[in-house]
Amino acid sequence: MFITSHRKFFVTLTIVFVVLSIGSLLFKGIPVGIEFKGGSIIEMSYESLPDKTALEAELQKSFESFSLRQIGEKGYALRTNALNQEGQEQAIQALTLGETIPGTVERVSDIGPTIGAELQKKAWIAILIVSVLIVLYVAFAFRGSAHGVSGWTYGWVTIVTLLHDVIVPAGIFVWYSASTGAELDVLAIMAMLAILGYSVNDTVVIFDRVRENLRLNEENNKREPFEETVGKSLSQSLTRSINTSVTTALVLVAIFFLGSASTKAFSFFLLMGVIAGSYSTICFAAPLLTWFKRKEVKK
Amino acid sequence: MTKYRVATALILIISALLAFFIYRTEVRESRYDLKLGLDLSGGTHLVYDADVIKVAEGEIEDAMQTLRDVIERRVNLFGVSEPIVQTESGLGVSGEVEHRLIIELPGVTDINEAIRRIGETPTLEFKLQKSDTEAEALIESFQRQNGTTTDPELLQDLIDDLYTDTGLTGRFLSRAQVVFDPTTNAPIVQITFNDEGAALFEKITRENKGKILSIFLDGVPISEPVIQEEIKGGTAVITGSFTAVEAKDLARNLNYGALPLPIELVNTQTIGPSLGRNALTAGVKAGIAGFVLVALFMILWYRLPGLIAVISLITYLILSIAFYKLFGITITAAGLAGLVLSLGIAIDANVLIFERYKEGHAKGIYGAEGWQEAFSRAWLAIRDGNVTGIISAVVLYYSGTFLTQSFALTLGLGIIISMFTAITITRTFLLALNIKGVTPTSRFLLGNGINLTPKA
After folding, report:
1. DSSP character string of B302-354
2. Which candidate from B109, B333, B407 shows the least CB-CB separation from A260?
3. Contact (CB, 8 A) for B230 and B202
4. Would you tell me which residues 187-226 of chain A have a C-beta closer than 8 angstroms to some C-beta of chain B?
5. Where are the alpha helices (DSSP H) in B36-186?
6. What is the ipTM of this complex?
7. B455 has a pLDDT exceeding 50
8. Mode of pairing for the β-strands spanning B97-106 and B124-129
């Protein structure tokens, strides 16, 4: 089968992707939303959009560091450190140039830094727990040395695939946020956890096939090199794997383009995750599995 | 095969009924309205951190409860529909347990007003009820002036008039506790005043024996005992036909007449109503678009079974929305995204089954037998795949904020309900159709792919 016979190429290619992503993350990084580092966001919408420099000049009088960004056609979003009520009023005053420009406050979010740090911690723990549980589950579902391949082999391959499925979308997200200013918010973390669950799903299907083919080989006393078995399993499951990813991707595309602003970063992340997950299952997990266990399955 | 046809009819009828139910309860005001989170309906969300340093370990729970009750009483005065006041405790960054109070006020957009009113100190007052004759005269003159008005402000004034202030307030209370009457074993509340309060209390009881001393909390009389004798020493008991629970509540409320714990605002969010409405419309649009895209794909690729899968997906949607309504599940923007995402996942199970059927088809097994085979062989993969999804959803639910919980709920529920609809409903429909796949037309209908030549 094309992919398993060129496994060296595909595994190397994938590793290149991962390294590039890690590089992006380390050197460029992703801006983190205020829910994680604390701060304030005030969104104002106007009948007619006022001049940005004028607003910034006004804001500079009371605020040392802030960022003003345009949202949509008629609004600005102001980001600052955490503000108390007074601070918020000052900001709103500045944004309306001392109430000379009519504007509506659409949204105010103020998050103290302790809550932010706490949420960060929770997010890391959640990612860790889900990963561990999933790997344990895979090892359990494929337990025992069924037909020459131990459950842990599947488990290890799953771990490595999972890492890829989180790192590469994150790497892509770095570039997305660089061009759109998107931040990593709570929803993006949720997307990450959803990716973890979803991508393993895909990988498990292939493993399921491999196991079934191994069993059939045993029953029929057929000797077949492991890589051929894996290759066969892969081609059998190819359509299924791609189609399920396509259906989920279609839905995510709809959410990304038509959904509310708050779900844009989330749906982008998840979309990248689904694509990466599909890629990793076909071009990474399968060849990797072969690599781990290059011995003929004996009767 | 007939039983499948009957089952199909049943499923379609039930779905139609549920769809009607959904329509009716959305179009009119109903108990079963879909509950929308703040980011879709607009409103204010406040989080306060409660300082429990001065409270003994075992009493924290009680203190938080009282805090919640006091705040809820105040919030209810706003006239907000369906406010939420909750306590939450969790591990903070430093490893200590943090206790928080979460307040959600749908529709309230003046955040400063909300914060101000919540922070107000409540009042505990002791007032004397005026004598019957005085009261009657007052009521008569009120009725002469205002007839049978139901204006709450006027009525409140009348009630205020019926009492005389004594000047004794919760400021002077030092302690309240529940004791049991030695003779009757009934629960009673014993209160202790500080020195100033004791003196004042002595004076009041000496001058007003036989009268009723009403105890007001936040402007509402909560207890109206009769003064039986002069009370010195600043300790008094409030008797009445309390149950133990009532006595405990009263003691607690008296003790914590002011806010029981100092609270600090740590998180505020206000969403304007138009922003919320836009988010809702956008989410629904995305849902419809997503559904259409998936339906098109399924029908084009899997043809007849694809069409069945789409019908099954519609049933899934109807079931899910009815479920949210019946169980009062709150939908946020993230929750909506979770529902739309679950559409993709719901279809997955169908794809699995169809792919397995295709294998049977290639080997020459068609029709009902082929489907039974396909279902039983696909089940394991469906189960394993969805378990990982459910693990993610469960962890998301318990580890996050309210926002993530909404997403986790709709996603997790979506996975479970979709397992049901794919396996039960799709199966029933397909078996009811019972196309053998022997004629070229039927083989086309059951084949798949974009190319138009049927696979042999």
Report:
1. HHHHHHHHHHHHHHHHHHHHHHHHHTT-EE-HHHHHHHHHHHHHHHHHHHHHH
2. B333
3. yes
4. 187, 189-190, 193-194, 196-198, 200-202, 204-205, 208
5. 38-41, 60-76, 111-119, 132-146, 152-161
6. 0.78
7. no
8. unpaired
pLDDT tens digits for range B246-297: 777 777 666 655 566 667 777 788 887 777 788 888 888 888 898 999 999 9
CA B77 to chain centre: 20
User: How far does B401 lie from chain A, in Å, by closest CA?
Assistant: 8
What is the token pair recorded at A146? 């069924």
Pairwise CB contact (< 8 Å): B283 & A114: no
- Helix, strand, or coil here: B86? strand
List Cβ neighbours of B249 (8 Å cut-off, separation of 6 or more): none
C-beta separation of A45 from A103 below 8 A? yes
- pTM (2 d.p.): 0.72
pLDDT digits 0-9 by tens, B321-379:
888 888 878 888 888 888 888 888 888 888 888 888 887 777 777 667 778 888 888 88
Q: In Å, how far from its chain's centre is CA B166? A: 42
Residue B177 phi, psi dihedral angles, 5° rounding: -150, 160
Residue range B284-311: average pLDDT? 88
Those residues whose C-beta lies under 8 Å from the C-beta of residue A154, and which sit 6 or more positions away, are A138, A139, A142, A207, A289
Residue type, A134: I
Please identify among residues 157-186 of chain A the ones whose CB lies closer than 8 Å to any CB of chain B: 186
The encoded tokens of residue B369 equal 């037998």
The answer to whether the Cβ–Cβ distance between A201 and B388 falls below 8 Å is: yes
Structure tokens given for A5: 């016979």
- Nearest by CB to A193, from B294, B355, B392: name it: B392
